[in-house]
Design brief:
The protein is an alpha+beta fold. The chain has 28 helices and 22 strands. Pfam families: HECT, PHD_G2E3, zf-HC5HC2H.
């Protein structure tokens, strides 16, 4: 900077750093604003920020004669405005010496001796309270780093916190965090040297920041969707049009799937119905019309199960698994055994009609069986992993860059045991084990990959074409990260489309893509236009209209019959879904060969599709129950202990608890999901004579207290898990 002589580029401290190449001038914005001998005489687009180049040169020459009272170097362009004070300094030096710069009116500057101060009463001085921005303690002292609110007696701030908030919020949203006062608060902060930029808030300037709010929910949530084209298929003015819940709008159903006859007919999701039912405002007539199971054309149709809109409610359906768990053999436990207990010990176990459906149950069991087979295959591959460790330093706010840097470091090897350290989370090491950090890392990484520009599509994703990613070999790294994640305890990816999966298994030359695989809206529109041609002349006209498009795709062909449109559509699909991404696909396949994953996928395609093409199953009481093996000593009433544990899982699943099933899993293992490879060691439960439950994450062991009543057991569980969660 020609005014302060520093090369620092820190917009938060010194403002934007700009260079005028034509005149070989570089300045910090704040240095320019605060210089005493220069005025903004030009328009905003003239010179630098409206300061003319000739004026800047004159100011540089003037400052060259003045020595900074702080660093003792020449070039001090800022002077204290207090009468008879002759101190001059550079802007960075003034910040260091705690001078105050007022970013308003004439942009006055005050040295450390004459700077304005806030008045404190005797009662206010000497105490301490929380900064209402960062929530750390701030002492009530009349010093430079501390500021108090002019409108709230109990609002205190760190100066640095206020400055960062002002830069983010801008002049329209910067206000007192306690009472929301704007005018009085901004006036005092400007007086005390807080810069409030005259622009909109940073979150308002993000491109497409609120784009998601413009999308209407279009997904069929009934338990058995009848549409052969999938739950996301929506065809207006037909029986496959999606109708949204009239109350929440966040759940939907096809007309045919819920027997709706017209658009005027109202439809409510199960959760909204249950809320109205509890409030007594839901009529019996509606309850009969929208029963949980109905007969439609002789076929039993099952409505959707309640969805977890509340973040504290676990998903899943109550069922009779408590009496049939394969890992727990309780000979004396019967469906009526809880009635024989005291009233405080009773727990209600309800049977869900959804879980009793035979077809759905068979598919569910088949999927779980496949995932068990995958688990065994992955455990075989894990034998390659050595005890030698490699540490990955991860920044959770920039997960992709830090993961990429870790995977590309010279000492990284997929066969080494991985240790993950979150460098930007100071307290994580105090509360999390190495395994917990690794679980969290792979969860964030898979989520980033799913939403990255390397893939395209809505639910089932295909590879996209990103030329820059091809140059940087990012598709290879993505494949390698997924392979490493599967072996080292990451979650199931679950977002591959069937087309992408088949390309990996059978090769792209043996795969026939569908229209749902095309993510480009314009291409979809073009293909649909060609498909709608109902005679030869309209088809030829359409081909003529899209001549350049078809030629660029290499699909332009003579059309002599109406049946030629099928070949044309097929060529377009193959080009956009397969041929276009030949290089990314090959690179991705090479990455998946890491640790032998791709070879196993090709040998066992059916079982691997369960984790690559299907989202991980939501935790249910049955899943968590089956996950644990129960051990108990001879002096423990095993039946009663099991009864309390399984009843508690039911309460958590049905939303009758302040914790979730994910909280319980996290408490024991350090992970809120079940890894594709499973837990090592396998989770166990012990019933002991202890005061409160203990989660041993090193052994994946949950030690449960023996209590006299179920309510006492539930209270202890929730108190302990919530305390650990807060920590």
């Amino acid at each position: 900077c020609v005014l302060c002589g520093r090369t620092d580029d820190c917009p938060e401290k010194y403002g934007e750093k700009r260079t005028c190449v034509e005149y070989n001038l570089t300045v910090h914005y704040y240095c320019l604003l605060m210089s005493s001998g220069i005025w903004q005489r030009g328009e905003e687009d003239e010179g630098l920020y409206g300061f003319l180049i000739t004026d800047i040169r004159k100011e540089v020459n003037r400052a060259a004669k003045l020595k900074c009272n702080i660093c003792k170097k020449k070039g001090a362009s800022i002077g204290c405005v207090a009468p008879r004070c002759k101190r001059s300094y550079h802007f960075p030096c003034g910040l260091q010496r705690q001078c105050i710069f007022q970013f308003m009116e004439n942009f006055r500057s005050y040295c450390w001796e004459h700077r304005p101060v806030q008045m404190f009463t005797d009662k206010e001085a000497g105490g301490a309270s929380q900064c209402t921005i960062c929530l750390d303690l701030v002492e009530h002292l009349p010093v430079y780093p501390v500021l108090k609110s002019p409108c709230c007696k109990n609002a205190w701030f760190h100066r640095e916190c206020l400055q960062y908030q002002a830069l983010s919020a801008g002049i329209f949203f910067f206000r007192c965090t306690v009472c929301n006062n704007k005018d009085k608060f901004q006036k005092e902060m400007l007086r005390m040297g807080i810069h409030i930029p005259e622009r909109d808030a940073s979150w308002e300037l993000e491109e497409n920041a609120y784009q998601d709010l413009l999308h209407c929910y279009q997904h069929c949530d009934v338990k058995r969707c009848l549409c052969k084209k999938g739950r996301d298929y929506n065809e207006p003015d037909s029986k496959w049009e999606i109708k949204r819940c009239q109350y929440c709008g966040s759940r939907g159903t096809h007309f045919a799937c819920s027997s709706l006859k017209s658009w005027e007919q109202n439809w409510e999701c199960v959760e909204c119905r249950s809320i109205f039912a509890k409030s007594g405002k839901y009529s019996k007539q509606k309850k009969r019309a929208l029963a949980t199971s109905e007969k439609t054309n002789g076929t039993t149709r099952l409505l959707e199960e309640p969805s977890p809109k509340s973040p504290r409610q676990s998903s899943g359906s109550p069922c009779n698994f408590l009496l049939q768990s394969p890992k727990i053999m309780c000979q004396n436990l019967s469906p009526c055994s809880h009635r024989e207990l005291p009233a405080s010990n009773r727990m209600t176990v309800s049977l869900s009609p959804v879980m009793s459906n035979r077809n759905w149950s068979l598919r569910y069991k088949h999927l779980r069986q496949q995932r068990r087979e995958v688990r065994n295959i992955l455990k075989e591959l894990k034998a390659q992993v050595k005890r030698k460790t490699t540490r990955l330093n991860i920044n959770a706010e920039n997960i992709w860059s830090s993961a990429l840097k870790g995977f590309r470091q010279r000492i990284f090897s997929p066969t080494n045991t991985l240790e993950v350290n979150f460098s930007n989370c100071k307290n994580r090491s105090k509360t999390s084990t190495t395994a917990a950090s690794k679980y969290h890392f792979f969860q964030l990484l898979m989520l980033h990959l799913q939403n990255s520009s390397l893939f395209e599509g809505s639910s089932g994703k295909n590879l996209s074409l990103d030329s820059q990613a091809v140059k940087e070999n990012l598709y290879f790294e993505a494949g390698r990260m997924i392979a490493v994640s599967l072996i080292h305890g990451g979650p199931s990816p679950g977002f591959f489309s069937k087309t992408l999966f088949n390309c990996l298994v059978h090769g792209p030359e043996n795969v026939k893509p569908a229209l749902e695989d095309v993510a480009d809206v314009d291409v979809v529109r073009t293909i649909k236009t060609i498909e709608r041609a109902n005679n030869l002349s309209s088809l030829q006209s359409t081909v003529q209209d899209y001549c350049e498009f078809l030629a660029a795709a290499g699909c332009l062909r003579p059309v002599t019959a109406l049946c030629d449109k099928n070949m044309l559509v097929n060529d377009l699909l193959i080009h956009h879904v397969i041929k276009r991404i030949t290089l990314p696909l090959e690179s991705f396949r090479q990455g998946l060969k890491t640790l032998g994953i791709l070879e196993k996928i090709q040998m066992h395609p059916d079982v691997f599709s369960s984790i690559l093409c299907h989202k991980p199953e939501r935790l249910s009481a049955e899943t968590v129950c089956d996950l644990f093996t129960i051990h108990s000593s001879s002096d423990v009433n095993k039946v009663e202990g099991d009864d309390f544990w399984m009843g508690y899982l039911q309460d958590v699943e049905s939303g009758e608890s302040v914790v979730t099933l994910e909280d319980i899993l996290l408490f024991v293992t350090g992970s809120c999901y079940i890894p594709s490879i499973g837990f090592d060691p396998e989770p166990t439960i012990k019933f002991l004579h202890i005061g409160y439950p203990i989660g041993n994450r090193l052994l994946n062991c949950l030690e449960l207290p023996i209590t006299k009543t179920y309510q006492e057991f539930k209270n202890k569980m929730e108190l302990t898990i919530r305390r650990v969660e807060r920590e």
